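QA checklist item 7 of 12: single-chain prediction sanity check.
[x] sequence parsed
[x] length recorded as 227
[x] structure emitted
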Amino acid sequence: MDTEAELTERDHSSDPDEGTAEGSRSARSSWRGAAFAAGLGTVLLLLLSTFVVQPFLIPSRSMEPSLQVGDRVLVNKLAYRFGAEPQRGDVVVFDGTGSFVQGEPTDADFVKRVVGVGGDRVVCCDKQGRVHVNGVAVDEAYLFPGDAPSQVPFDIVVPLETLWVLGDHRSQSRDSRDHLGEPGGGMVPVDQVIGRADWIGWPLSRWTSLDRPGAFSGVRPLGGAHG
């Protein structure tokens, strides 16, 4: 018997060492594919959060009943790009550095509702306890039940490129009213707005859109122009 020929012609596919090596290569390839997919997903998520939609946790009662403690709102960061401006009634998230917070805070993001935009005169309150914007009484149906529009009277004209913002739970909210005597007078620069809160994303039981209310539909800019 030609033993050398028999060894040469043996079926190499049954070699256990070779099978183990191929399995190892296959496992490494699968691991690399999974790692690449995970890395790509992380990058896409970071890009989405940085430029398009960013979640924010609601830490206080200042926006009840619209927003509750523990809600996570999804903030549309493209809402005010390409020439668009915040509108009365929008719920916005903004960096309060220099307006609501002086110095160098570690966390200066706030969520409030826009009540006045640049050029508006905002007055509180009339005999019925209502806020007026440019002479028009605003029916703020979104306020926390039992809350007055404000216990603090004010009569201000909002400078251009700034916003006058208030919480929906007025008795629990530190907002533009509380900063009247400070630098900036409680006005939030438009360029400090991070975006518009368009949805409650979590918990799932509270998933809903945050639509702009019709309370300000009758308000016009001072001078009579439509806006």
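[x] summary fact logged: The longest helix spans residues 16-51.
[ ] second reviewer sign-off
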